[in-house]
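Service request form, structural biology core

Requester: graduate student, group of Dr. S.
Request type: structure prediction, single chain
Budget code: on file
Notes: please return the result as structure tokens.

Sequence provided:
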Amino acid sequence: MIKKIALGIFAGTFLGIFITSIFVPDDSILDLFLTKITATSIITGLLCGIYDHLSKSKLQVLSISILISIIVFYLKYLITGHDFDPLKMGLFVGTVLGSFFATLKKIMNSFKMHEKLNKLRSRGFNNYF
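Core staff response, request fulfilled:
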């Protein structure tokens, strides 16, 4: 669970800095890190990482990540009055984070199945002739 939360925080930080670099013309990485968009993306990544640990479905992770992100960005809009469109920002961040977690879940599932198959093959379950 800690790995998925840490991945969510890292992905949210990276995505927040990327989005902020598009909108804010500052050159300093610290100025990009200390913005409302980056903080909201980190919170979204944290919540999406927690949900990714609790869910088994890749499609559900994607759709709930989008919903979590829209809610978090809209709450940020209501609290701070930040004038960027919260629905579009939440939709974009949620889609990127959700697809990141769904892809990671698919890769890890394929890797685990490959390990199980290799273990069975090494035990002789593939020797028919």
